[in-house]
Amino acid sequence: MTQGPLTTEAGAPVADNQNSQTAGVGGPVLVQDQSLLEKLAHFNRERIPERIVHARGAGAYGTFTLTRDVSQWTRAKFLSEVGKQTETFLRFSTVAGSLGSADAVRDPRGFALKFYTEEGNYDLVGNNTPVFFIKDAIKFPDFIHTQKRDPYTGSQEADNVWDFWGLSPESTHQVTWLFGDRGIPATLRHMNGYGSHTYQWNNEAGEVFWVKYHFKTDQGIKNLTQAEANKLAGEDPDSHQRDLREAIERGDFPSWTVQVQIMPASEAATYRFNPFDLTKVWPHEDYPPIEIGRLELNRNPENIFAETEQSIFSPAHFVPGIGPSPDKMLQGRLFAYGDAHRYRVGINADHLPVNRPHATEARTNSRDGHLYDGRHKGAKNYEPNSFGGPVQTDHPLWESTSVTGETGTHEAPRHAEDNDFVQAGNLYRLLSEDEKVRLIDNLAGFIAKVSRDDIAERAISNFRQADGDFGKRLEAAVQALRGQ
Ligand code: NDP
Ligand code: HEM
């Protein structure tokens, strides 16, 4: 069925889309051929900068349903009534690979979730792991440089990766997780998501609670071995993206059970681990996960570039009742994402259909800029004004927290049981013997590639400090592979 004539961008009919206009048969091409010039020029501009991390991803819309009353902890309206449903958009991603890279690789997976709430969009920009490699934003660019291609060789280098991790012992927990079975999920549907950071919830009475989010897959955890992933990445680089789209197309909607761990604010200072240290979990026995809802993905984007590539998520997008914690990584992220969006998509990125609020409207005094959508029509663009313009609420989204001390470059405080290894050891010890064997194989295979013994030894030493057996077996495996 024809959709009518092909047109130029200005809507005029195109007479010939096969032959450029020339000066006579066989002559040079004419500048008056607008159709040709416009087509070539548009093509040159079809790419925007890819995300500096998490470039490779797949997204889907869904529904969050609240299954438990949580108003004792937060006044967020979308969390106010059992049975309440909120539209969402979730973008999964790998971290290190560029836009065209394969899905089946060992890497954390991004789990970036936008809730289109009636009080504005709330973004929870998490991963499929509960922890992270570092605990201060100032180390993030260095860390990512070691994951990306080396400026001289143009490849990811084992030397760079292990040099950084060996010299950053706080990475030991996340690295143990990454090289375990869950480091390569079988599909995006068969893995958990985590908010990872600690966030603030506050209730109507102004009481503060610290919260961690968990999204437990209802499909069950399924992973790929390194060998399976190597094969799949070669044969079907788009495996995860396709699997998600096809599952939704056939009505097999993936879902996650949503849980939170809640810590009353008064317990934070004396908790055995620093609750704002992103390299640590809160053991379940200390703060048992509480089920509060269900997230289902049920609609594919119609256009991947418009919706998934141009989607923006920011940890700074909060709604009343939810706010940041003093986690130093989170604090850095509060700046980084908005800045990336302004560079990558533009100053009006949040006007795009996927990014704008769906259950309310944005009412600001900002105007103009590239691709401004004219949403404010003739409304005044200053405040205060006498023409019924939007007014401030005098009610901050989150509660203030008190601080003392002197400004300076302080390390995050260590609580009674904090060190960089204890929880990596706990993770190692909960693995079955088969899982331990695969973990050690995966780590040894990569560490064995480094060019210098001191880099290998420093890396192994971190795992030795997590657990003596772990270190001993890893050292033997690396030595065997390096022929020592
Ligand atoms: P628990 O026994 O109460 O919980 C263990 C957790 O480990 C569960 O969430 C489980 O997830 C998860 N897990 C099981 N196997 C693996 C694996 N191969 N790779 C990664 N995670 C796995 O113990 P704790 O709460 O004391 O935690 C012990 C260790 O478990 C931590 O040091 C941390 O590394 C890891 N962990 C802890 C989480 C937490 O929030 N406390 C969350 C995820 C991991 P599932 O229930 O889906 O099987
Ligand atoms: C994407 C910075 C840590 C999860 C990004 C982007 C930047 C960035 C600049 C690209 C954003 C864009 O172009 O739209 C940082 C910095 C960090 C950090 C500076 C540390 C200080 C983390 C952590 C997590 C995380 C700890 C998870 C817990 C993600 C996800 C995306 C992303 C999921 C992809 C979002 C999407 O799908 O659009 N990060 N990041 N990042 N980051 Fe981080």
Describe the structure.
Helices cover 28% and strands 15% of the residues. It has helices at 34-44, 140-147, 158-167, 172-179, 226-235, 239-249, 304-309, 328-344, 422-430, 433-447, 453-466, 468-482, and strands spanning 57-66, 85-94, 109-117, 120-127, 193-194, 199-202, 208-217, 255-264, 290-299, 322-323. Helix 3 (158-167) crosses helix 11. The radius of gyration is 25 Å and the shape is globular. The protein starts with 33 loop residues before the first helix and ends with a helix. The structure holds NADPH dihydro-nicotinamide-adenine-dinucleotide phosphate and protoporphyrin IX containing FE. The site of protoporphyrin IX containing FE has 28 residues, from strand 2, strand 3, strand 4 and helix 8.
Instruction: Please bin the fraction of helical residues.
Output: 25-40%
In terms of quaternary structure, the protein is single chain
Ligands present: NADPH dihydro-nicotinamide-adenine-dinucleotide phosphate, protoporphyrin IX containing FE
> Span between N and C termini?
69 Å
Largest sheet: 10 strands, antiparallel
Q: Count of DSSP E strands?
A: 10
Classification by helices and strands: alpha+beta
Mean of pLDDT: 97
Reading the helices and strands in chain order gives HEEEEHHHEEEHHEEHEHHHHH
Work out the strand percent. Answer: 15-25%
